[in-house]
Specification:
The chain contains 5 helices and 7 strands; from the N terminus they run H-H-H-E-H-E-E-E-E-E-E-H. By secondary structure, it is an alpha+beta fold. A 7-stranded antiparallel β-sheet has the order 1-2-3-4-7-6-5, sandwiched between helices. The radius of gyration is 37 Å and the shape is elongated.
């Protein structure tokens, strides 16, 4: 006789008994307890995932708020935009440097103000030249310096009528460092991907001496 035939015969011939009510109740209770435990563990895991996701969003949002706070000034945003135009222009220099005394006179008649830039460039920050730029709603004089292989843009523009929150702003935006300040009737903006400390060194050289 085959095993399958034996199994069928046993199922047919052996008597069947109904389990006592108490036993069935205990089995049902144990099954329900296991189900509740699995559901509780799943709920705990789900809650933990929600908490982790919430914390990640808070951290990410906090970082984005910090970035937005640094770049909320339109003065910084425009300075970085102008620097990027210099970086990607086919002809970033309209006048190549033969020294500041050659570059500054070139702006006469091209901008409606006299840019004051007392720094002629040196071995650390050689002056490359300049071009006419637009800063927000006005013309600006753009001077281009170098620091090793890094390009540094200096923008000089009339300061009147711009939304100055303070006389000097430093910020990091889109991978660039920016320093924007005003001195009398003129505003200045320095932008580059060099370290902020190096940009501040150039700033000190650029500030007019009295």
């Amino acid at each position: 006789m085959k095993d399958e035939e034996l199994d069928a015969l046993l199922r047919e011939r052996l008597p069947r008994y109904t389990a006592p009510a108490a036993l069935r109740a205990r089995v049902a209770q144990r099954h329900a307890s296991r189900h509740d435990a699995r559901r509780s563990r799943a709920s705990n895991v789900g809650l933990a995932l929600v908490v982790v996701a919430f914390v990640a969003l808070v951290l990410l949002f906090g970082r984005r708020v910090g970035v937005d706070r640094d770049t909320q000034s339109p003065l910084v945003t425009e300075a970085v935009n102008d620097h990027m135009r210099v970086l990607y222009a086919e002809r970033p220099l309209e006048i190549e440097s033969g020294g500041i005394h050659q570059v500054k006179p070139w702006f006469e008649g091209r901008v409606d103000f006299a840019p004051i830039v007392p720094f002629d460039g040196d071995a650390d920050f050689p002056l490359q030249g300049g071009s006419v730029a637009y800063y927000i709603d006005r013309k600006a004089a753009a001077f281009v310096y170098k620091r090793s292989l890094h390009v540094i843009t200096l923008l000089v523009f009339p300061s009147r009528g711009l939304p100055w929150a303070s006389d000097r702003v430093t910020a990091e935006s889109r991978g660039f460092h920016a320093i924007v300040w005003r001195a009398g009737d003129l505003g200045y903006a320095l932008v580059s991907d060099v370290a902020m400390g190096e940009l501040e060194s150039l700033e000190r050289k650029l500030k007019p001496t009295r």
